[in-house]
Q: What sequence folds into this?
């Protein structure tokens, strides 16, 4: 299947070419079967999400002091920002009553996280109010902060003021391919450069605990200059279940840092990042949601300059409710691409 066909698998001036998507799905059916068989066996082994059993399952060391370990470490060999934010929110949530809901967090990533050692989370009970409760969390490695985070929780309160933007119109997740399915497709191309093949195989070996279905694969793999906006469906791998809304917010915090900063690079296929790291990350939670069910993640970058890029994200429940919003600024130092992409 040509890139153009893949690029057709998305909202195109508001029109969705479902036939192209179905055609793409048909062409990849055998690969999908293979992948879904292996995914099913993984699912059997790991009915509960690894985010629940490992990543967000902090060990209590003392009052308001926790230790978190790593699951997936990006190729940069610095800790994934979403993991640190998610774990910081878990630590903060442990010190507030069950009747409170996480409604926002604001973080600075002040040092790179070291994947060779665990992270300590120290919680300060900043204030307990009648409606709002604030916690400050310091994530520490080698005796120094790597992240500082303020998280705020609220009791459930009624509101006559209620509005939200409409959810973007996109194909449902059932009509789209997962990142793994797309990679299998690219790997089957006979003219694929050896270096690209190696890169894709490394991506495939990643044990990212979230499942992603890009709405437009061309945006995901930067096959041409695009507006700085991309959308994907995402959900935690494995089962989390209903009930613990704070935990779903922690998972959403983990997911929210995934592929967000890369949105800045979409208009510039002639450049690739030689250094990219998120500097800060804020998040607001709006309605209840299940992070183990498909949510649409809409990412856009309104500005870039001074080696930094600003990105904003919105997470939509598939019934159209706005579940969460986030904002992030990152540092991006780029270098020219010497060879065009052979994907
Ligand atoms: C998916 C996105 C993610 O999850 S990213 C993970 C979460 N975020 C992070 O890990 C970021 C953590 N924060 C940090 O690492 C620091 O705050 C950062 C952003 C690096 C702060 O940068 P800075 O104050 O420049 O630190 P530094 O002096 O230690 O330099 C770090 C490396 O950058 C280089 N650098 C610095 N300035 C320039 C410049 N003007 N032009 C080119 N390079 C520059 C430094 O030389 C240094 O490089 P190196 O590490 O020695 O190779």
A:
């Amino acid at each position: 299947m040509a890139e153009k066909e893949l690029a057709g698998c998305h909202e195109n001036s508001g029109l969705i070419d479902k036939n192209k998507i179905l055609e793409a799905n048909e062409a990849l059916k055998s690969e999908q079967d293979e992948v879904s068989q292996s995914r099913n066996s993984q699912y059997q082994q790991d009915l509960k999400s690894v985010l629940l059993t490992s990543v967000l399952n902090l060990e209590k060391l003392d009052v308001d002091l926790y230790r978190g370990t790593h699951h997936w470490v990006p190729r940069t060999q610095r800790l994934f920002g979403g993991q640190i934010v998610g774990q910081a929110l878990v630590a903060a949530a442990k010190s507030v009553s069950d009747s409170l809901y996480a409604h926002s967090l604001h973080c600075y990533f002040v040092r790179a996280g070291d994947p060779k050692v665990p992270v300590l989370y120290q919680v300060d009970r900043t204030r307990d109010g009648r409606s709002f409760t604030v916690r400050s969390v310091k994530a520490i490695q080698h005796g120094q902060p790597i992240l500082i985070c303020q998280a705020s929780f609220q009791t459930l309160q009624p509101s006559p003021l209620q509005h939200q933007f409409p959810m973007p119109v996109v194909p449902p997740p059932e009509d789209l391919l997962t990142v793994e399915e797309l990679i299998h497709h690219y790997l089957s191309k006979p003219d694929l450069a050896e270096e690209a093949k190696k890169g894709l195989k490394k991506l495939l070996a990643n044990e990212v605990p979230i499942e992603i279905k890009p709405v437009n694969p061309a945006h995901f793999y930067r096959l041409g200059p695009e507006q700085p906006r991309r959308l994907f469906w995402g959900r935690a791998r494995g089962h989390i279940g209903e009930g613990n809304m704070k935990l779903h917010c922690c998972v959403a915090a983990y997911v929210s840092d995934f592929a967000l900063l890369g949105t800045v690079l979409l208009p510039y296929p002639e450049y690739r990042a030689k250094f990219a790291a998120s500097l800060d990350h804020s998040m607001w939670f709006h309605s209840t949601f299940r992070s183990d069910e498909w949510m649409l993640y809409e990412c856009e970058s309104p500005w870039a300059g001074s080696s930094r890029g600003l990105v904003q994200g919105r997470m939509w429940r598939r019934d159209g409710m706005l579940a969460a919003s986030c904002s992030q600024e990152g540092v991006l130092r780029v270098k020219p691409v010497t060879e065009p992409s052979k994907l």
The chain has a mean pLDDT of 86. The domain at 50-156+191-336 is CATH 2.40.160.210 (Porin). Residues 29-45 form the longest helix (17 residues).
